[in-house]
Automatic annotation (TrEMBL):
TM segment ranges: none
GO BP: carbohydrate metabolic process
Pfam families referenced in this protein's UniProt entry, alphabetically: Thioredox_DsbH
SUPFAM superfamilies named among the record's database cross-references: Six-hairpin glycosidases, Thioredoxin-like
The name this protein goes by in its record: SPT20 protein
Domain Spermatogenesis-associated protein 20-like TRX: 7-168
Provenance organism: Leptocoma aspasia
Length: 731
């Protein structure tokens, strides 16, 4: 390729998203003092563009507008232009997304916001086409109008931005009202269940018509609701809703049947045509959900999906040093000679292509049947393509097929006169052949940024899968990733987490010149991961680090006046609002997870002030939990755990003993949302014994593996029977 005509300051950044824009004609600045000073010195407005490297519409806006010489000239003449990677700086993204949602009724990425020189927003939106259309004003027109307004009505714009900021400050505040206490668990749980039940799709699972998102937070809530109501019709329905949704997702096109893992979301009701990017946070949470589905149902189908997700992450999203990359893009070049990328090109198939790859006759099947016939029938392949044109507005998928398991294996086997076991082997052979063919295609862009929070979610996925499936290799992979975090995303001098690091040259791991400090979500998801890893590995060092990070989280983010945790630290003058997330989305809101983290931390440390803090978070969100609990299903779940009190399940003895292993296997195979596991190994100098002196009084009974189930450090009689233990573990 020829040398680029333009290079801007983003060339010095580490973020893959910012580097994608380093050769735009736009004179981009990263978020920082240099840009702010320029805006003030030259009295210019700021144009802020926020996105991420695997965002389809971010690519579109770059191609149409940010690579345009004419639009670049307008932007450079009238604005100081700042680019932000929302995954690197969720704090900046959240402040201005709050503004865009409040003023336009919607949000998304790319996010486009115009700010005064003192960073106050006054106009914004998401994607803009470059030129005016029938229904939409073009980006060039918007730029020129705003520049004109600044020249002619500067004082009015400044006044308007100040009013907007004050209104946002009032509406976004979450704080405890008076003497409010945690809301009652039963009412909040029942209301949330009813709201989810009403939005549930009986045919295809999920909780909307389209687009349809995986929403692990909803599934996690339903599993807990079932565990607490397992003998009632409502409990049975909750379980059916969760398991059916997980099965339909796994059969659907949102699941990559050839390359494993899950795409971001489905554009239709049937989980068929996805938005093809793959995000680390989805893989981590879905691995945990499918592990729980296996724990509850014992159905190997769910265990196979767990293995599928973790194979994808291990192969395609893993850094050699042990960390996990952030995402894979939706767009790629269809062939090595293509000049334009297309969404889904890496994943979709023409019927002709499949017939050429799978021509072999199938012995024992109906006469004339080929591998292609069997595979294409099972995965809903059509000669003209199986994508509804309404779901493909730019015709990127015309004539192509997104694989979706339309038939049960039994029906497909019967159709071709095959035994189900033979069909399974044939489909596996087909998938391997297609995987080899797909490997010859140009791969989508890989975002090799490594984020503490998302690595935490993935560590939880590996640790929980390792425990539920009794797969030690998954636990070891979780431990490797946790060690990576401690080496590359933790500053031992300050005791603080860092937000991000990056794959460097020659497979090294690099850090920004000025590292980004960890946000609340980084602490919360890493602490959760370390608790999960301790329960899977019983290595007390992870527990010790988790409790250290919990103390640090309290120090940096706790709101002593309004209760709950802020998303960001105090003291950054460039952040106009200090917010608390109030909605579980693609990821649970940090305060939701923190409630359970605090209860677990108290069980492992004896520090009961953490239980009090958990109650204060629930009190701060009490009004929202009682009115619209469906927006916070993970916090609703945590409310139930808070009121039911966690059970400390303590096993006495050497974790390597065979009798202890049997008992641990029993504990890990039972889904119990309100338990914490620990082993009293007799080492009185160990971390747990120093935290919980009462452990020294617990002994093995009759030389056998012995468990105690304790509540608020008051223990049951010793249990030596695995069957009795299984019964007692139920909520």
């Amino acid at each position: 390729p020829s040398a680029p005509r333009h290079t801007n300051r983003l060339i010095n950044e580490k973020s893959p998203y910012l580097l994608q824009h380093a050769h735009n004609p736009v004179d981009w600045y990263p978020w920082g003092q240099e840009a702010f000073d320029k805006a003030k010195t030259e009295n210019k407005l700021i144009f802020l563009s926020v996105g991420y490297s695997t965002c389809h519409w971010c690519h579109v806006m770059e191609e149409e507008s940010f690579k345009s010489e004419e639009i670049g000239e307008i932007m450079n003449e009238h604005f100081v232009c700042i680019k932000v990677d929302r995954e690197e700086r969720p704090d900046v993204d959240k402040v201005y997304m709050t503004f865009v949602q409040a003023t336009s009724g919607g949000g998304g990425w790319p996010m486009s916001v115009w700010l005064t020189p003192d960073l106050k927003p006054f106009a914004g939106g998401t994607y803009f086409p470059p030129e005016d259309g029938i229904h939409r004003v073009g980006f060039r027109t918007v730029l020129l109008r705003i520049a004109e307004q600044w020249e002619e009505n500067k004082d009015a714009l400044l006044e308007s931005s100040q009013r907007i900021l004050e209104a946002l400050r009032c509406t976004s505040e979450i704080r405890v009202q008076g003497q409010e206490s945690p809301p009652p668990a039963k009412e909040v749980m029942d209301t949330c269940f009813q709201q989810l039940s009403r939005s549930y799709d009986e045919d295809y699972g999920g909780f909307s018509k389209s687009p349809k998102f995986p929403t692990p937070v909803n599934l996690n809530f339903l599993f807990t609701y079932w565990a607490l109501h397992r003998t009632t019709p409502e409990g049975a329905r909750a379980l059916q809703m969760a398991l059916h949704t997980l099965k339909m997702m796994a059969h659907g096109g949102i699941h990559d049947h050839i390359g494993q893992g899950f795409h971001r979301y489905s554009t239709d009701q049937h989980w068929h045509v996805p938005h093809f990017e793959k995000m680390l946070y989805d893989q981590g949470q879905l691995a945990a959900m499918y592990s729980r589905a296996f724990q509850i149902s014992g159905d190997e189908f769910f265990a196979d999906v767990v293995r599928d997700i973790l194979l994808y992450v291990s192969r395609d999203l893993s850094d050699r040093a042990g960390g996990f990359y952030s995402a894979e893009d939706a767009d790629s070049y269809p062939t090595t000679t293509s000049r334009e990328k297309r969404e889904g090109a890496f994943c979709v198939w023409a019927a002709k292509e499949l017939r050429a790859l799978l021509p072999d006759p199938v012995e024992g099947a109906t006469e004339g049947t080929t591998l292609g016939d069997v595979f294409m029938h099972h995965y809903g392949v059509e000669e003209a393509g199986n994508v509804d044109p309404m779901k493909d507005p730019y015709q990127e998928l015309k004539g192509k097929n997104v694989l979706i398991a339309h038939c049960s294996p039994e029906l497909t086997a019967a159709r071709f006169g095959l035994q189900p076991s033979r069909l399974s082997a044939l489909l596996q052979e087909c998938r391997q052949r297609l995987s080899s063919a797909r490997a010859q295609r140009p791969r989508p862009h890989l975002d090799t940024k490594m984020l503490a929070a998302w690595n935490g979610l993935m560590i939880s996925g590996f640790a929980q899968a390792g425990a539920a499936l009794a797969e030690q290799g998954y636990v070891s992979r979780a431990a490797q990733a946790a060690a990576f975090l401690r080496t590359h995303l933790f500053d031992p001098d300050s005791g603080r987490l860092l937000r991000s690091c990056y794959q460097g040259k020659d497979n090294s791991v690099e850090q920004s010149a000025v590292p980004i400090q960890g946000f609340l979500e980084d602490y919360v998801f890493v602490i959760q991961a370390l608790f999960d890893l301790y329960e899977a590995s019983l290595e007390q060092g992870w527990l010790e680090w988790a409790l250290h990070l919990q103390h640090m989280q309290d120090k940096l983010f706790w709101d002593p006046k309004g209760f709950a945790y802020f998303s960001t630290e105090a003291g950054d003058p460039s952040l106009l609002l200090r917010l608390k997330d109030d909605q579980d989305g693609a990821e649970p809101t940090p305060n939701s997870i923190t409630v359970t983290n605090l209860l677990r931390a108290a069980c492992y440390s004896g520090h009961m002030d953490w239980v009090e803090k958990a109650g204060k978070i629930l009190a701060a969100f009490s009004e929202r939990l009682q009115k619209i609990p469906i927006t916070l299903p993970e916090m609703v779940r945590a409310t139930a755990v808070f009121h039911h009190t966690l059970k400390q399940v303590i096993v006495c003895g050497d974790p390597q003993g065979e009798d202890i292993k049997e008992m641990l296997h029993c504990i890990r195979s039972v889904f119990s949302p309100n338990k914490v596991l620990m082993v009293a190994d007799g080492d009185s100098t160990g971390f747990l014994y120093r935290q919980l002196p009462f452990l020294a009084s617990l002994e093995r009974k009759d030389g056998k593996a012995t468990a105690y189930i304790c509540s608020n450090f008051t223990c049951s009689l010793p249990v030596t029977s695995v069957q009795e233990l299984r019964r007692m573990l139920r909520p």
